[in-house]
Amino acid sequence: MAGKLSRQAASEALPAWRHLLQRMHLTVRAPDFVTALDFVGRVGRLAEEQGHHPDVDLRYDVVHVVLSSHDVGGVTERDVTLGRAIDAVVAELGLVSEPSSLTQVEIAIDALDIDAVQPFWAAVLGYEAVARNDVQDRLQLGPAVWFQQMDEPRPQRNRIHLDVTVAHDEALARIDRALAAGGHLVSDAEAPAFWILADAEGNEACVCTWQGRDPQPHD
Predict the structure, then answer these.
(1) Rounded CA gap, 155 and 163, in Å?
(2) To which H or E segment does residue 124 belong?
(3) Each residue of 12-42: pLDDT tens digit?
């Protein structure tokens, strides 16, 4: 089994890509649909040659490619090898990467009894449970839902918030736009892993990145 790379190592190995939620993401814009389709075809051929297959989404002139190794639940050297081959095709076709457009949304539910509420959300959303505190869309199209353990009721605070994961170099710009749109900063104590923001009525969203989450090596 291939070893899982740290977020830092994966990001350094594929600088044109962005690490969001244990997967490497690349969004490129093509001049037209035919070029975008050609790019998808080339990615498909590379994947077949290497025996390692990414998720690919095509929207007219925009292609989104996601790499991960499902057997380890993260990024491995297999992903790096395929990612670098895809980078060569991007360069050959003269495509433009758009990391600032990358967004992955998670819904976080505070719960006193996770075991009691998790099955409901899996059933009502048609998702599957991938962990005690995590349910996900099988096709990974809809946002994941995870459950945060509460020690006591907090009736004064909303118990559902959105986790908005963006490229690490997009986070501050995204926060600035949210603040300019009437939001306010609740806490940056855990930055750059996440910043807690709220709207004018106190409804919260966390802007999240991969940074600050890898275990730090001991001296």
Answers:
(1) 20
(2) helix 114-125
(3) 999 999 999 999 999 999 999 999 999 999 9
Count of Cβ atoms closer than 10 Å to residue 150 Cβ: 15
> Which neighbouring-strand residues pair with 65?
26, 56
**CB half-sphere exposure, 50, CA atoms < 13 A:** 20
Q: Which structure tokens are listed for 202? A: 């106190």
Nearest to 43 by CA among 89, 106, 111, 107: 89
Among residues 190, 215, 20, 1, the alpha carbon closest in space to that of 10 is found at 20
The residue behind tokens 């991969």 is 210
* Residue 63 and residue 51 in contact, taking contact as beta carbons nearer than 8 Å: no
pTM for this prediction: 0.84
State which amino acid sits at residue 42. R
Contact (CB, 8 A) for 101 and 27:
yes
Closest CA to 13 of 113, 84, 71, 74: 84
Measured CA to CA, the distance from residue 168 to residue 116 in angstroms comes to: 35
Separation of first and last alpha carbons in the chain: 28
Asked if 102 and 96 touch (Cβ cutoff 8 Å), the reply is no
Dist CA 50 CA 81 (whole Å): 9
Residue 74 is given by DSSP the state B
Spatial distance between the Cα atoms of 210 and 18, rounded to a whole number of angstroms: 9
